Amino acid sequence: MADTTLDADVTDPEAVVDEYEEKLDDVLATVDDPVPGVDDDPRLELAGLELDRRDFLKAGAVTGAVGATAGCLGNPLGDDGSNSAGATQQSDTPDHSVPPGEHDQYYGFWSGGHSGEVRVVGVPSMRELIRIPVFEPDGATGFGHDDETSEMLAETGDVAFGDAHHPVLSESGGDYDGRYLWINDKANGRMARIDLTYFETDAITDIPNVQACHGCAVQSPDTKYVYGVGEFRTPVPNDGTNVDDTDKHWSTFTALDPESMEVQWQVRVSGNLDNADTGKSGRWAFATGYNKEEALDIQGMTHDDRDYLKAFDVDAIESALQAGRYEEVNGVKVLDGRKESSLNSGSNPIVRYVPVPKSPHGCDVTPEGQYVTASGKLSPTVTIVDIDELDSVSDPANAVVGQPKVGLGPLHTTWDGRGHGYTSVFIDSQVVKWDVETAVEAEKNSTDPVVEKIDVHYNPGHVQAVEGETTDPAGDWLVSLNKLSKDRFLPVGPIHPDNDQLIHIGDDGGGMELVMDEPVHPEPHDCVFVDRAKLDPATTWNKEDYAGEKPFVTAGKSGVERTGEESVHVKLSSKRSEFSESEFRVREGDEVTLTVTNIEGVRDIIHGVAIPQHGINLAIAPQDTRQVTFTADDPGVYWVYCTYFCSALHLEMRSRLIVEPRDN
Ligand code: RUQ
Ligand code: CUA
């Protein structure tokens, strides 16, 4: 096997960059689609610096120079010297500002990458409204601190973090219905659901047979399934057997039930899987995949000039399930969807393998549902597949109906509902707008379909247009989620924020317009937007929603109840500005279950419960009840205090935990 590791002795920064560039050039040179030529403007404008687009990542070697000019940039937007604030005041510039007291038009849900959270952002203001913890505990909201949420985390892996990439919203009739949002955990093969009434994670599933759950999609139009896309190939079961027999290593495509969050079926495939989307009619789900070579290193994974877009025929899969043509593995029905599988040999294959240029990444279906696209990553093209053709062609390759050349490093594509695709191109640091029908009519590798390119700063991953994943995109705003911010913000140490850029796309005649930069905590991958009219979040809890699971503790029902020789149940109610008990006594060594209800019915009035030296931290919203269990090991007096500044007497909102020595 060829040596693919970097030269261990190279430490000179320039040499490291050169080596990276050479390897990238090698990989790109083997793509059988030609790389864009000299007709493209290769220069990327950076104030005080000129970089060749192809060499853009070399900018890492000159960050000192960029940093040195950061204080006098003053011209981040255009030649007219306007900055983003000035630009919004020009009458012909789309106004993204939302005055004090007014609301944004859209909710945006951002994945938080390895912060394991989802962030809620108002669009177009780009103000972050709140963060919803999903795979990691969060002190601010008490998630993962109370019994219920900490047990949910513990039972689904008990790992320190999750890597959340792709938020997807529940749909009814092809439109967002405001019920749920799902998000994957790439690091641990999990899928989580957020209840959009309470904006809280209410379920996590640890998916069997999957190590890295990457892509995420719901089956349009009515959310019949939620899909988790297993990326890494691992032995199944992964218990030390078959470590070297890579034929017994799998990537699987998983379908979960949206309500029960239980796995319904899995399809194991040839090669691996990456990102996903679904057709609009309910029949098809799609996933890109790189590493058709089933290699274990980068050189092997990028060896062949073709990979596959995989088209999963849901009807055929359900028929095969009904016919019992599955194997039960770790409690899950697994269908063999590999290329040579007997389930793929007849006239009704469960997976069609559509050849596309090597290592495709983004997988995106057009709003009306006619085409699915695979964005090239290592090819400068986007491959367009006609979904209806999948049924009529004998060779899936013939379902490819277009392949516009958009630029270097295409990653993801989104839609404006007016017939345009917008593709992020990572290496070129641009968002490229192209015309879908022109692309279908044009020759492959034509640049004719390209309508416009806009520079972004820098190296975009996902792009998302507002409601771009519905059948009826709003078409006014687009966000480019850029991985690197470099010179855009005050330097804050070596770990920089990413840069989300808001771009107005509502004026086809006037062109795309960069409106603002938004620094973001690492590392969002993807986002999804929904018009505010389609969500109806609660402002207080409805206690009926947890009746039978947890008590609603009023002042009259509060107190200490001994439940065993070494266990007590402490019940408290809370309101401004007191807990119902000014103290509660337990004995050394007791297991203490503490149940606290916030009896207020007024929105915004949250009470917290913190107990020093016990790690206890609850946040209780109006009409909510939270429970936590701990052991009172150390005799002494501990002040219990409210953590949310709830009233003028908030500091006085206290109680005392008294742990009496057991020998007394
Ligand atoms: S995938 S950009 Cu999960 Cu592109 Cu991150
Ligand atoms: Cu209740 Cu502060």
UniProtKB/TrEMBL annotation:
Keywords per UniProt: Calcium, Copper, Metal-binding, Oxidoreductase, Periplasm, Signal
Coiled-coil blocks: none
Stretches with biased composition (Polar residues): 81-92
Signal peptide start-end: none
Ranges for region Disordered: 77-109
Pathways involved: Nitrogen metabolism; nitrate reduction (denitrification); dinitrogen from nitrate: step 4/4
Cellular compartment(s): Periplasm
Subunit structure: Homodimer.
Family: In the C-terminal section; belongs to the cytochrome c oxidase subunit 2 family. Belongs to the NosZ family.
Protein name per UniProt: Nitrous-oxide reductase
Native source organism of the sequence: Salinirubrum litoreum
